[in-house]
Amino acid sequence: MAHDLTTPRDGIPRVLATPASFREAASALSAGQGPLAIDTERASGFRYDDRAFLVQVRRRGVGTFLLDPEGHRTEFTAALAPVLNGRDWILHAASSDLPSLAWLGLYPGSLFDTELAGRLAGLDHVNLAAMTELLLDVRLAKGHGAEDWSQRPLPENWLAYAALDVELLLELGDTMAEILDHQGKLDWASEEFEHVRTTHADITGPAEATWRSVRGVSSLTRPEQLAVARELWMIRESMAVEEDRAVSRILPNKVLVEIARVLPRTTRDLARVKGFRRGDARFWGEVIQRALDSDPRTWPARERPPRGLPSRQTWASDYPESWERFSTARTLLDDLSADLAIPAENILKPATLRSVAWGATVAREIRTPLDLPDVLRGHQARNWQIELTAPVLTDTLF
């Protein structure tokens, strides 16, 4: 029967937030043994970006360290990078943590992702709490992951939660490696982990944001709508950067796009937009009017995306033979997924399957089965995925 673990077994570590304490932590960690269990706590729902406000590191022989880099990020990197970089890391859901760690100049030499390992092993639930309870017979304290981790001081129960995120990661990594090895999937997992690592290896800072990247903006068609969307975004971005505040707390994307769609002409009309905070109507109304009063020659034009695959309905109705082959391939990959107990999307991305099926049966961009491996690699499929899926695609698409 699983037992509850509400605080770290060695107590809650103190938060280290000074250059001197970073150097002390680095010295201690360098004396530890084996891989490093690492996690971060961020505040993207509250702050402008997704930077780490707490970094948790655990290593055998030296225990857990809670590190607060805010205010001394350069010194943090100078102290910790020589010790952490190039070593073996264990993370859970690594893709969510690696960007903020990369912004701090921290990069693993090799990676083991326990969440991804759980998916490849066929576990039904791959969140950290579910996996530790199933495999290690331990129930972790309830989560605080969505809290505002930028606030100071941090409550004791939050710190306990943060420390517990790495308390059992080393043991969980060992257990998952054994399971994957027993299932004959460890080499596959290693390819997946390396793909995740290299995908994040060149990150040095947040990706540049643009107003056209806002979800929903592409659905706007008229120049005046786009002009308003651009102006709203620029003002919101300026405010968010200056105040270090999440854009969703200033003007959520859905609201921004809806305002640009309906083009409210009065503060009363603006206040009726779903999700809009009425107290801000005058301010944003002036922004809208400024955009509409600007020279129409400066209004942006709609960018039409490059022609891609047809909709499912069009594909099925206009290219029935191609659709049937694609559907057969999808069914066979679903069967393979069930046989291997690996989610189908981890065997081959659905977008890759659609692209390859269309390219082989309609566009004729893939002329023979011999072209398949290179095409799949172009879609970032790993060798193990190609070995499993190429025979199925060959039998169904050619």
Describe the protein's architecture and organization:
Pfam families: DNA_pol_A_exo1, DNA_pol_A_exoN, HRDC. This is HRDC domain-containing protein. InterPro entries: 3'-5'_exonuclease_dom, Exo_C, HRDC-like_sf, HRDC_dom, HRDC_dom_sf, RNase_D-like, RNaseH-like_sf, RNaseH_sf. By secondary structure, the protein is an alpha/beta fold. The protein contains 18 helices and eight strands. It has a six-stranded mixed β-sheet, with helices on both faces. A two-stranded parallel sheet has the order 1-8. α3 links the parallel β6 and β7. The model has no long low-confidence stretch (mean pLDDT 96).
Domain unit count: 3
Number of strand segments: 8
Low-confidence stretches: none
Q: How much is the radius of gyration in Å? A: 25 Å
Q: Which CATH class of the largest domain applies here?
A: Alpha Beta
CATH fold category name of the largest domain: Nucleotidyltransferase, domain 5
Helix content: 40-55%
Q: Helical segment tally? A: 18
What structural class do the secondary elements suggest?
alpha/beta
Can you tell me the CATH superfamily of the largest domain? Answer: Ribonuclease H-like superfamily/Ribonuclease H
- The CA-CA distance between the termini, in Å, is 53 Å
**Large-scale geometry:** flat
Biggest sheet overview: 6 strands, mixed
SS strand fraction: 5-15%
